Amino acid sequence: MRTNLEANWAVTPETEQKIVDTAGRYQTEPWQLMHILLDIQKIANNSFPREVAVIVSRETGLSEASLYSFISYYAMFSPSERGRYVVRMCESAPCHVRGSKAVMEAISKTLALQPGETSGDGRFTLEYCQCLGLCVNSPAVMVNEAVYKDLTPGRAATLMEDYMRGDYDA
Ligand code: FES
Question: Which of 6, 70, 80, 125 lies 20 to 30 Å from 119, alpha-carbon distance?
Fold first, then answer.
């Protein structure tokens, strides 16, 4: 079930302070930019909307253009709001020949979502992505920053059920 989450999330004084505090790490740890931006994305419901980029730009001194060129390069970032758990299934050739289609079908059936959709409760977003760099252990899936390798349809369905039960933190 697709839902428009963009209408549900907005910067509040509390979330702005969290973004400011997290972005502030850039001043002493600029080499941690990737982790800093991922942490900020978590605060903003797994998204990087413009209002967040404006705050991050102000706090880091990085231009919005350079921020967007960074986050548009890496598939784990999204300008659109997503669920608490972003399930990303590799659709590149090595995973495809080792059964990623059947794994995706099992995940899709378990979550009752098609690729590109977010659950009505805002918990799950299902996406296809390109190679995750785990080809020797394909098919591979990421759920937020956690990696799951050598999946079968049965293992993938069990994994999703574990997430649905709340066995993992975001
Ligand atoms: S092709 Fe799927 S991880 Fe590389």
Answer: 70
Question: Closest ligand 1 atom, CA of 131?
Answer: 4
Would the CB of 135 count as within 6 Å of ligand 1?
Answer: yes
**Ligand 1, pocket-test mutation among 138, 147, 149, most atoms within 8 A of CB:** 138
- Chain segment 95-139, per-residue pLDDT in tens: 999 999 999 999 999 999 999 999 988 899 999 998 888 899 999
Per-residue pLDDT, averaged over 154-162, amounts to: 97
Which residue from 75, 4, 67, 69 is spatially nearest to 40, judged by alpha carbons?
67
Q: For residue 105, give the nearest of 142, 160, 143, 146 by alpha carbon.
A: 160
Q: Ligand 1 in contact with 89 (CB < 6 A)?
A: no
Write out pLDDT tens, residues 75-96: 788 878 888 899 999 989 989 9
Q: If you measure from the C-alpha of residue 102 to the centroid of ligand 1, how many angstroms do you get, rounded to a whole number? A: 15
Closest CA to 129 of 103, 162, 92, 155: 92
